Amino acid sequence: MIPKLSLVSILVATFALALGYGLGGLGVGASLVAALGLLWLLGQRAGWGWVASAMLALFVGAAAVGTWLGVGAGWTLPGVVAALSAWDLDHFARRLGGAGRVVGVRELERRHLWRLLIVDSAGLLLGAVALGIKLKYGLGVALLLGLLAVLCLSRAIGFLNREIR
Amino acid sequence: MRRFLLLSGLAYALFLLGLATLSGGLLALALPSIIFLGAALLYGPEELQLRATRTLSAERVSQGAPVVVRLSIANEGSRLEEVLVEDVVPGLLELTAGEPSALASLPPGGTVELEYTVRGTRGILDFQAVRVAASDRLGLFRRRAMLPAPGRLTILPQVLRLRRVAIRPRRTRAYAGPVPSRQGGSGVEFFGVREYQVGDPRRWINWRASARHPRALFTNEFEQERIADVGLILDARQRVNVRSQGDALFEHAIRATASLADTFLNDGNRVGLLIYGWFRDWTFPGYGKVQRERILRALAQARTGDSMVFGDLDALPTRLFPARSQIVLVSPLCGDDLPTLIRLRARGYQLLVVSPDPVTFEVRALESQPSVALAARIAHLERVLLLRKMRQAGIWTVDWHVDRPFDQAVHASLGRLPHWFRAVGVGP
């Protein structure tokens, strides 16, 4: 079940981004994204451990470039969420395969997919809400808000990093 | 860790890029990654409070016997969404069934059981700890711990039951046993004739000798049989113990030593063991089952090694062996060992050398080429010459081709004393 869902996620991510690029009149970008998706599928089939992480970075990069070039956020946001899901499912499948024995494999899979669904939905929803909000403020306020956001994010990542260590 | 860094790096980059370019779309793209990280933080595992308990189906087994290892890991803390439990299996053990690792979800008070079967080569093996890694369901936030779960498994070398090993040391001990003692008395083997003494059983009277001497009666004497001191020496020098095709000649020597020790102890003898390699590992002489256990444990831990001091047999500590006792050397031998062995004989020790043949052992793994055949022939001739010289010096030798079972080799060579050895007073 997990490998199938992973495959579907890769296809969705590729399709969304490629279509977004295509509709934006960026044929080369669409081809590149399709090639990346194909490489991801090939890598997954070949069992390359690094391919999921590399492809996630490349897909997020492609989405960012697409947004910069005017590709609709309605395509890039689902593409990023699907790429995140594919990346997560790939690692989950590896964790299951790496353990000698999995106790209650169905239950573990079910709970993992449920968590992933919640996280994906929240990501999509918040992303969509964020895209819909339009605020007008001056440069000073923007700088202040940005500084505050960077500070908060740094603190959060630093805290997580310390906890992991 | 790398996943966490990758995701946080992406989120950070998108966010900064969005702020720098004042692009809401880029900021929106960062949100799914931030929520991913947030979920990991929210549901990440707390401090691990786990307890591991290990049980072994047997703590002392012979080589190759299966042992079932059971591990129980109990969660005494909060819920752990994903726990990977991996037992650290000592390197000398081979997994034959089951798995030493498991992935599970552990509620408070829950347990996860591991069960697997191993078997291994000889040695005293210590199980140390269990590796545990707990993470959230998304696998981003991970805590690791090593849980102590000690256990000791002793794998003793294989012991073959030998039918009989005939020895004849010059000096025996006071108690009755199976070793001819070179002294007249009650026994089985004829020893000599002496004048009749009051109390001698009538059926022992030698009527033929008495008939030739009308004024005296003569009585047959038999050779007393007693126990003896046996010193076993296992040659653990690296340079004489060859390896071939993953097999080591030393392992055959270990099995031979274990079998000989078992046989000598079963006969009631006092047996000591010296492992002579990169140091001198001495097991003090003793009797019975306790001594058998001591010797087998020493053999279980025996390793080959090279040492400048113990490179040849010159440093054999003869003071460890009682004077004129039986010494049994288990060694593949090399050319420069002969003078030392002759010196031991000269000091009055009765010497038996069991020599696993290193030439045939090594040749069987080599390609059959004319040069190899010629080299093997030369090496074989050198060995034959060495063994012949040893026999001429009164050293009893057993040339053992390890392809042949040791009990068969022993039965053929050591089942009874050679005729030149049996003659009273002539024996070396």
Word description of this protein:
The complex is a heterodimer of chains A (165) and B (428). Chain A is mainly α and 165 residues long. In chain A, helix 4 (73-98) runs antiparallel to helix 5. Helix content of chain A is 85%, strand content 1%. Chain B has ten helices and 19 strands. Chain B has helices at residues 2-21, 24-43, 207-212, 249-266, 288-300, 338-346, 358-363, 370-392, 406-414, 419-422; strands spanning 50-56, 60-62, 67-75, 80-87, 93-98, 101-106, 111-120, 123-135, 142-156, 176-195, 218-226, 229-235, 243-244, 247-248, 270-276, 280-286, 326-330, 350-356, 396-400. Chain B starts with a helix and ends in a 6-residue tail after the last helix. The interface between A and B is large, with 58 and 55 residues.
Number of strands of chain A: 1
- Structural class computed from helices and strand pairing of chain A: mainly alpha
Helix tally of chain A?
6
As residue ranges, the low-confidence spans of chain B are 424-428
Derived structural class of chain B: alpha/beta
Helix content bin of chain B: 25-40%
Question: How does the major sheet of chain B shape up?
Answer: 6 strands, mixed
Q: Write the H/E string of chain A, N to C.
A: HHHHEHH
The Rg value of chain A, from CA coordinates, equals 18 Å
Distance linking N and C termini of chain B: 74 Å
**Shape, principal axes of CA atoms of chain A:** globular
Quick one: which chains have the greatest interface? A-B, 58 and 55 residues
Gross morphology of chain B: elongated
Distance linking N and C termini of chain A: 33 Å
Query: How much is the average pLDDT of chain B?
Result: 87
Can you lay out the helices and strands and say which pair or pack?
The complex is a heterodimer of chains A (165) and B (428).
Chain A: H1 2-23, H2 27-46, H3 51-69, H4 73-98, E1 101-102, H5 105-132, H6 139-164
Chain B: H1 2-21, H2 24-43, E1 50-56, E2 60-62, E3 67-75, E4 80-87, E5 93-98, E6 101-106, E7 111-120, E8 123-135, E9 142-156, E10 176-195, H3 207-212, E11 218-226, E12 229-235, E13 243-244, E14 247-248, H4 249-266, E15 270-276, E16 280-286, H5 288-300, E17 326-330, H6 338-346, E18 350-356, H7 358-363, H8 370-392, E19 396-400, H9 406-414, H10 419-422
Parallel strand pairs in B: 2-9, 12-15, 12-17, 17-18, 18-19
Antiparallel strand pairs in B: 1-3, 3-7, 4-6, 4-8, 5-7, 8-9, 10-11, 13-14, 15-16
Helix pairs in contact in B: 1-2, 4-5
